[in-house]
Amino acid sequence: MKNLILCGGSGTRLWPLSRKLMPKQFLKLFNGKSLFQLTIERNIELCDSFIISVNEEQYFLVLDQIEELTIHDSQITAYDSLLTTHSLQFLLETEAKNTAPAIAFASLSVDEDEILFITPADHLIKNSDKYKEAVLKAKELALKGYLVTFGITPTEPNTGYGYIETEDSGNGNHVLSVEKFHEKPDLKTAKQYLELNASHSTPITYLWNSGMFMFKAGVYLEELKRYAPEVYEESLKSFENRQKINDNQIRIKDMKNIPSISIDYAVMEKSKKIKVIKSEFYWSDVGSFDSLVREMAVSNDNENNKAEEIEIDSKNNFYFSDRDKLIATIGLEDFIVIDTNDALLIAKKGQTQQVKEIVNQLKETHNSLLTTHSIVHRPWGTYEVLVEDKGYKIKRIIVKPGKRLSLQKHFHRNEHWIVVSGTAEVTVGNKTFLLRPNESTYIKMGELHRLANPGKIPVILIEAQVGEYVEENDIERVEDDYRRNQQ
């Protein structure tokens, strides 16, 4: 059985923590680990291999997070372990086209009888015994040719989840037939679903749609071809034109003609082969700050929260900052305060689903705030914009050991580099030399240059850019270890 981990999704309901280039599944908010890392750990003993579907912009971020893990507290990294004990494949998508095409690519990449266990990368799941029990039951059904989904018994009238209407006789059978899929309801409808569940007046039961699935690859492709033929045909064309980068990386290009559609719309709401596992493990998609606050309160995880608060006549509030920050409040009750370097969110508890409305407004006015944090992850390390104004920008750059930036040049800016820590290998024009702490160099506009770290510790330097245009797209790469077309 292969675990297909879907790493798409921008997690906009957790803005400003979650951004396009650092969505919620990669935020290390749970005892120093991300939801993606927890997904790997949770499924490594249940599956013999992994397929990771990810936008190509986030591939190196995924790779970094796998390499940070260790298996069973050993000294072997998860990445090395996966390469030796599991097969590991990356499907790199050039465009976001939702879950139905992503699952089609994975299905086309394996034998038709292979069992695929599809799990989003951004879910929090607890109670491993119940989880394993549900997965094994689903595998039995998948082997019989069913498309299996996992339903979660609702604990609240949540409007952020879709619901599955089932017929449950109450005899303890966890394998149920699906009557209907329901979209995310309004609050009144969600309350009605829970009231019907509690009344037991009918066998109809409403479950949360977890977004997890299991089936044979060939069965999924058959149903996709039957109920969403355009999605099937266009996905097949794209897959046939795929670019094999190496043994475990496939780049899916030419995706513009594929309809963007979820597996629910394309297949699950139409197929006659659906079964649902009524699951008893704890599940959350951490889809709002209300749910995130609950989870962080339970885990008592404050490792990444650097906020210090002073409260006057205030209670039942939650404060989070990604940098050392004193937050003082007077007369505040039941509020959530999320502070980042470039944005501040203040929301009333119970209303954080409305963050998506703020995001919609930002698309028109401040789109860059939806894309990147002040700290930006690159395959060679990170950079952080410290100061930016018209005509100049100052960054802190960290280059990981053994990594290097592309050989590049800029047409609208000059750059000054000052090394703070480590030893940097610098190429400027036809000269290559070393810079040590408190040493600097100057790169003229239009001059070829490269920064590398040949040492064993990270190189940290300050870069001052000066010019009429200091945006990231002022770059021409001549050589690049990571085959990027753009920064």
What is this structure's SSE topology?
Elements: E1 2-6, H1 35-43, E2 49-55, H2 59-68, H3 78-85, E3 87-93, H4 99-108, E4 115-120, E5 124-126, H5 128-143, E6 147-152, E7 163-167, E8 175-182, H6 187-199, E9 204-216, H7 217-227, H8 229-240, E10 243-246, E11 249-252, H9 263-268, E12 274-279, E13 282-284, H10 289-299, E14 307-312, E15 318-321, E16 325-330, E17 335-339, E18 344-348, H11 355-365, H12 368-371, E19 375-378, E20 381-389, E21 392-399, E22 407-409, E23 413-421, E24 424-428, E25 431-435, E26 440-443, E27 449-452, E28 459-467, E29 476-479
Parallel strand pairs: 1-2, 1-4, 2-3, 3-11, 6-12, 14-16, 15-17
Antiparallel strand pairs: 4-9, 5-13, 6-9, 7-8, 7-9, 8-12, 10-11, 17-18, 19-20, 20-21, 21-28, 22-29, 23-26, 23-28, 24-25, 24-27
Helix pairs in contact: 4-7, 4-8, 7-8
